[in-house]
Every structure is written in structure tokens, then in C-alpha cells.
């Protein structure tokens, strides 16, 4: 492990962007308050714990001050330490209660918070003792008591608070590790082992708690306290004040902070974030040959070479390399650098670290007001009688415009979005909204609660900038309503040596080379941007003349997604009689800005059910939206997200058809058990011969031929013959994987559910 020495700021700065997508400007000087929050600090009678308790209370939190009152070796008990801190807090007008229990009685500590303040939001696991001895002299008691207090105590206190945090969909947890645990230290084997154990505990809690908005982070502080007095001279103890650690803890525990599963060293006013770093390593065996220690010796220098090292952040990233290794061994094309094709050779930026990372889930609650406000924002008016069903909730045909589907999805870009991905250091002031794709699977409800799940699908190197493809799936309950792909261009972030294209990108299509079949125009009002921004895009670029001038514009510009809404209105009016159920998908590329008050002119070409379009500013003739199209369903077709594909004639076809038939019988139950989308790429003679998708995430589950709509959680690749051997039980999936016959991409852990699906539902 190497420490990333870049300082960590005490608040998240999200610079104000210049162009149509913003991540929301936020003042660095805004005070972080904890009003209404309840904090439990263990070992709070002195040192770091006392500093945390005082700091939280000063900023409005209610604090449970826990301290057993023993000495640094765990002997004795007293109430005075906790009482003194509580008195300090109350004397300053704060709210606090003392607790004198050992952390081994975790339930009692949390009960004190619930009985006094009614809830528990934040747990700071700080309590600790020392039993320093050289390794040969450590007794069983010395070992056990250190682990009981540090590791088991933190486990018991956190477990007692966990379900309360889950139920309220909020929780912040701090584990206290140590440099001794990270690097080792003479005479502290018991302490070191327990302290690094806390890091593993915190990392797992960060994974399990993420969907409940429970974040867990670990700190390794250096501060003057009774514990550090045994290993630091007094002048350093005096210099490393606990008050220099507390600000990091407060920031990590604030609702604005989206940091999760991270480790920080902190002391003397400095903060550094640590991460794992892994050498690219070397393959040390060959197909059909034994692996020997001599081969390891021969490759040792390469194994330990950290040039172009990778930095895995998840267990999935950690084991994903093995699939490539197995493929290379099987093909007898062994490279000493099996993952070099994914690494940057010029700037050190490694996009593979971020591709596949999920952003925090966003919940969007709305009433009929939001769809009406959106319709008005994209130019709907009571002047047109056919618009009434979009702007009047009392209309019998009241419905949402299809492009309203971008509104709950765009919330994924604001606070806690891309800026929450650790290490993805993007200058959001240089962000342009390059392209947008929206596909609708069901008509949008006019009110309700929608949940959006976002994933970084790919990062491309365009030379002059980096292009981030962000996939957002929006659900109503378990039903998938729509899929958005945001193409976000970061000016100046290119040149890192990455790929320029991606099979995951939804591509634009040029219109036919002929006169448009239809042209419609609408004049935007001078207040169009002021009205549209009320749907959730608060970027001051669209309202504040001074801010627009700072971005290089003579006045505020119209939102790109507002022009996007106008274009779809024109298509629906001319080709679908404003029937929203006929809308299937749209892809656009934003080219030039539009100013409120200008006229949007949409040129349209019909090619079957696809309407090609481009939108111009009528006054200037400049193209604002290009390479775009809207896909409509046939008047005879019901809306469907799946296109039929001809049977491929493979043996596996029969199996997938049978799986589909059986899943229909128990779909709802299976969706609850599995909750994932699996894509199968079936090969024959080394080429992909068929694709099948088993969707056990949306609705009641289904199996269809073709690639997964949106993104698959896990993609399996194997030959038709090998697939049949797996199904017939001649080889189990694990053996197929480790032999290189079965290749897995995406969430490899979900493959554990594969055997159950094949065993129970693939019987012929």
C-alpha cells in the first residue's frame, strides 16, 4: 500500500461548470452543521474522543459521551472522565449525556442514545487501550483484551446501531486504525493486528451499507493522547493536538460527504488518503506445464515492479485480472504484462479503475406539479388545445412528456454523483453535455417515487478531452421505466492513452441526404431558461448574466435538455399525434448553444419508425442539435424494449427457451432471490453466434434473445458446446471458469447464482 499524499480538503468543492450540465455550485465556506443528528463517541473522556464530542456538540449534534474511565492498559473504572466532558458541552449550551459502559456492552451504549435522544446517526469507534510487549512476551490475556476492546468492541457497538441506521436510510461510521496496523511497529503485534482488522471491517460495512446511505470510513490518526505517550516524546505529544484530527472526522460524518470505504492518515493539520496499489505482476506458468518456485524466482523482479501499477478498489476489480490470465494461458499467448492494454502510458490516469463504478442511488419524489412544470419549461402552452393533457392534471388524458424521463435521471449528476467517486479528479468547470440518449420502456407515471441507479459505463480518450459515458436506469418499484446515457465531455482531460471508441456508446446517425419531410418551429421565450431550471437544473449559467459572462457567453444560455424537449415535442406532434405511448427512444448530439428568445426550428426525415432530426436556431441558421433521431413504435405494436432476433439454430437456443418458459412460472420469486441481469454471448468456431439475456431484475423476470437492454450486471462468454456441458452437469461453472472455457465480465460475484439458475431452470 502506498499513501496518496494529496491533502484532503475539509469540505467538498464542486466548481461551477461553464456549460449545459452542472454538478451544483457549493460554497466552500458554508458551515457544516449537525442539528438533529445524534452522535455516539466511544472513549470520549479525553484525547481524541473528547475533541470529537466537543466539536460535534458545538455544531448542533446531541452527543453520547462514552468512557469506561479506566487507565491506558484497561484497568479500573470511573465516571469522572465522561462526566467532565458532558459538563463542558452543557456549559456551552450543547446537548450531551454520559455513558460509562465498556464497548463490549455495545447494546447498552446505543440504548443510551435511543432512550435519551430517540435515534442514532453517527458512531465514532474511538475507545482503545494498549498492552505493548515484544512478540515473544505477549500473553494470551494481552492479545485477547486488545482485540476485545478495539476490534470486537467496535463490532458490537456498530452492530447495535446498524439496523437503526438502515431503517432511517442514514448512518455514518468511523473506525480508528493506526499507523502500527498499516505499517507494523515493534512491540505492538496485538495492537497492530486489531487495528488492521478494523480496516477490513469498515471496508465490508461500506459495501453492505451503501444502498442504505450508510457510509463507513477508517482513520489512522496521530495525536497526543495517553496512548501515544508510550511511543512519542512529550514535545511531539503536545504538538499533535487532537483538535487537528477532529475536522476530518466531522467532514466524513456529514450528510454532504459521500466518501465511503476509504482510509486516511491524519495529524498535525495534514490529511492523506491511502489506497491499495498492485504491481501488474507476471504470469509464471504455461499451459500443460507445472508451476515451479524457480519460475517465480525468474519473474520476481517483474512481480515486484510497480511501474504502471493498478489500484483495485473492489473485490471484483481485484479478481477480474484472473479471467485475462486464464485466457492468455489457454491461448499460450503469455505476456508478462497481462493488463497493459488497459493502462495509460502517458499521464498515469487509469480509466479502468472507474469504469463499472456505481454512483449513489438517487430517489426522486414528485407530484403532478413536476410533469406540468416540465411541460411548460419545454414550450407547452394552453394556446394549443392538444397540449392540455400535458399541463392540466384534471384532463382525462393527463400524462407525462416522454422526455420527462431525463429529470429523475439527471439528479444522479448533482451532489453525491460523479464527484463522489474517489480519485476521479475532474474539473467540472470544463464539463460539456455532449450527447444524450433516452429509451422509455413504459409510460412515465404522473406522480410517484422513482429510483435511479447510475454506472460509469466507459471513459474514452478524445485527445482534447475525456468522454465519460454515464448509464442511468430509473425504476418505479421493481419496474424499469427508462434508461438514459449521458455523454459528458471534460475539456482538456484527454491524452491519457485510452481508447477512442466504445461499443457501449449509443451512436448518433446522420439524416438522409434529401429535403426534410417536415419542419416545425417554436419561439422560445426570454424566460424559457428561467422556467426550465425549475425542473432541477440549477446551473447559474442559465440565469445569471455575470456567471454566463465568466463562461464566455454574452448572456445566459438555454439548457441543452430544454432544446431536446422542444425537438421531441415536434416529432410527437407531426408523426405521432402527440401519442406518448408511441415514443420509444431518442439520441441527440448538442452542437451549439441557444439563447432564450431565439426560435428553434426542427427538420425531420421519416425512415420507417425512425425519425431523423436536426434542430437549428432560425435567426442564425446554426445547428444546435445534430446527428439525432427519435424511434417510434408502430401504431400496431405495443411499446416494447426488446427487438425479436431470428433463432440462431444452436443447441443452447433450446435451453434458453426452456429457461424462459420456467422463469415465467416463478418469475417474481426468482427476481427477489437473484436481482440481476445476465447476458450470454454464445460462440461457435471462435465467433459470437448468439446473444441471450436473462433479466431477473425488472418486473417478473424474462428471457429474450439479444443483448441486455441498458447494461448487464454480468456477461458470460462460452461456446455452444461448453454451455451444453455445463447445463448437462458434465462440468460445473466454477471449473469452466478456472479452465478458461467460461469468461465472465462485470460483477463476478453474481456468477455464484449461476449454478442455481442452470440447475433448477435449465432442465430439458
TrEMBL record:
<feature type="domain" description="Ketoreductase">
    <location>
        <begin position="37"/>
        <end position="211"/>
    </location>
</feature>
<dbReference type="Pfam" id="PF22622">
    <property type="entry name" value="MFE-2_hydrat-2_N"/>
</dbReference>
<dbReference type="GO" id="GO:0016853">
    <property type="term" value="F:isomerase activity"/>
</dbReference>
<keyword id="KW-0456">Lyase</keyword>
<comment type="pathway">
    <text>Lipid metabolism; fatty acid beta-oxidation.</text>
</comment>
<keyword id="KW-0413">Isomerase</keyword>
<dbReference type="InterPro" id="IPR003033">
    <property type="entry name" value="SCP2_sterol-bd_dom"/>
</dbReference>
<comment type="similarity">
    <text>Belongs to the short-chain dehydrogenases/reductases (SDR) family.</text>
</comment>
<dbReference type="InterPro" id="IPR036291">
    <property type="entry name" value="NAD(P)-bd_dom_sf"/>
</dbReference>
<protein>
    <recommendedName>
        <fullName>Peroxisomal multifunctional enzyme type 2</fullName>
    </recommendedName>
</protein>
<dbReference type="GO" id="GO:0018812">
    <property type="term" value="F:3-hydroxyacyl-CoA dehydratase activity"/>
</dbReference>
<dbReference type="GO" id="GO:0006635">
    <property type="term" value="P:fatty acid beta-oxidation"/>
</dbReference>
<keyword id="KW-0276">Fatty acid metabolism</keyword>
<dbReference type="Pfam" id="PF02036">
    <property type="entry name" value="SCP2"/>
</dbReference>
<dbReference type="InterPro" id="IPR002539">
    <property type="entry name" value="MaoC-like_dom"/>
</dbReference>
<keyword id="KW-0576">Peroxisome</keyword>
<keyword id="KW-0560">Oxidoreductase</keyword>
<dbReference type="InterPro" id="IPR054357">
    <property type="entry name" value="MFE-2_N"/>
</dbReference>
<dbReference type="GO" id="GO:0005777">
    <property type="term" value="C:peroxisome"/>
</dbReference>
<dbReference type="Pfam" id="PF01575">
    <property type="entry name" value="MaoC_dehydratas"/>
</dbReference>
<dbReference type="GO" id="GO:0016491">
    <property type="term" value="F:oxidoreductase activity"/>
</dbReference>
<dbReference type="InterPro" id="IPR051687">
    <property type="entry name" value="Peroxisomal_Beta-Oxidation"/>
</dbReference>
<dbReference type="InterPro" id="IPR029069">
    <property type="entry name" value="HotDog_dom_sf"/>
</dbReference>
<dbReference type="InterPro" id="IPR020904">
    <property type="entry name" value="Sc_DH/Rdtase_CS"/>
</dbReference>
<dbReference type="InterPro" id="IPR036527">
    <property type="entry name" value="SCP2_sterol-bd_dom_sf"/>
</dbReference>
<keyword id="KW-0443">Lipid metabolism</keyword>
<dbReference type="Pfam" id="PF00106">
    <property type="entry name" value="adh_short"/>
</dbReference>
<dbReference type="InterPro" id="IPR002347">
    <property type="entry name" value="SDR_fam"/>
</dbReference>
<keyword id="KW-0520">NAD</keyword>
<dbReference type="InterPro" id="IPR057326">
    <property type="entry name" value="KR_dom"/>
</dbReference>
